[in-house]
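Figure 2 data, in text form.
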Amino acid sequence: MYTSIKAYYKELIPAMTDAEWEGLEKLLVLKKLKKGELLIREGEVCNYVSFINKGMMRIYINAVKQEVSLGFIGQNDYLSSYVSFLTRKPSHENIEALEDTEVLNLSYNSMQKLYKEFPIYEIVGRKIAENLFIMVSLRTNALLLLSPEERYNEMIENSPMLLQQLPQYMLASFIGITPRHLSRIRANQLKKKK
């Protein structure tokens, strides 16, 4: 159950001691979700950061008359409604299991305890937050600076597995277009290949 997360931390902190690992391990709580089940619902305070041990999750918001996918997070990565987690205020996001999923949760209070007992985790927390910031910045820049076709091509290049795994309406909302527009982009790309 802890093999993937332990490898994740060993990569971030190669010199991690057994005591530091055991300090984290005893605070992790396993949660299993069925496909379609929500880890966090809009309006709830997010109390955990979650490491995906197995499966895939989607972060989305309910915009005017439609869901907008903000991101897809797979195995061996962290996710959270991070603003809610940090501010202790209700989330604007929903986090949904796209398949049967298993996560290891670390609560807000446990994280604070970990920071006090093992200062190395403050460095780890900063590194994880920096990675999240980079991901959000790249996503914002893509939405503001790239055309829908360029965003689609970027998805093909960086996350080709999403194209097979996700329904078209989720992909379209992530790119920031309608499913119909996505169909046109795909059709145009097929014509160019011929």
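Caption note: The chain has a mean pLDDT of 90.
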